[in-house]
Write the structure tokens for this entry.
Amino acid sequence: MTQSQLQLGKNKVTEKFLETLKSHFKNHENVKVSVLKGATRNKDEIRKISSEILSHLGRNYTSRMVGFTIFLKKWKRDMR
């Protein structure tokens, strides 16, 4: 199981962030996104950010939140 790590800062989800995220998924199954204090410390807002990321990635990705971290997983088949 390979995992990569990214940080989400005050600019939140931008095109550049999404491009970087997609490039990480070319080599890794899992990506851990740490939400920095500058972005938010509101759990509901982190859930919205997670949903936004999933809507940009596509159907065979899932997410899980633990604290202020979003764990994203790429599946080989459709999960939704």
User: Anything to note?
Assistant: The beta strands are 3-8, 30-35, 61-66, 69-74. Helices lie at 15-27, 43-57. The radius of gyration is 12 Å.
